[in-house]
Amino acid sequence: NAGVTQTPKFQVLKTGQSMTLQCAQDMNHEYMSWYRQDPGMGLRLIHYSVGAGITDQGEVPNGYNVSRSTTEDFPLRLLSAAPSQTSVYFCASSRTGSNQPQHFGDGTRLSIL
Amino acid sequence: AQTVTQSQPEMSVQEAETVTLSCTYDTSESDYYLFWYKQPPSRQMILVIRQEAYKQQNATENRFSVNFQKAAKSFSLKISDSQLGDAAMYFCAYRSVRGGGADGLTFGKGTHLIIQP
Fold it and tell me: Shortest CB distance from B33 goes to which of A42, A90, A98?
């Protein structure tokens, strides 16, 4: 049971480049989320999804797009990378219900030069 | 919007001793869930313990326990018999019941726990 799988683990981009961070879960979880973690800031919610075809914005959505075509996958797209998007990105999933703990991937460290 | 505050950026404790990490939160909701997550240098996010706001009994998981004071909006984590493997960043997090908690967690900024051998 792989849980939540994020790829790649590390990536360096140049300003203006685009890329997609991949996230897949094999637990049949309805809820999926993307967070970014910056030094001294904790984790902040970027986008989330309650199921296939349904997404919504979190606290810091600007510069990021998401889609959810299947229950398993929830990719995060940076259309035009900026240095301010240098961060560690975490994908998480959970069953429906507020009492359900979120399961996190191992994170992607992204550097924008 | 909810906010979570961890006022201790760093804490240090001797191995085998007890340490308490503080967390306060602000919300207008009456029902919610609170969590403590551990993040070791490996970067993994590991659930330590969770508390349901409508339950008065404090949650306990082996050496980890919480002191949940709903009126004071306080949710501290006590680690007993500290071990070297407890060294990590610890994050306090809030989850609303609104919308079934679909909009994820609100995190504090974290406390870096150092274990002195």
Answer: A98
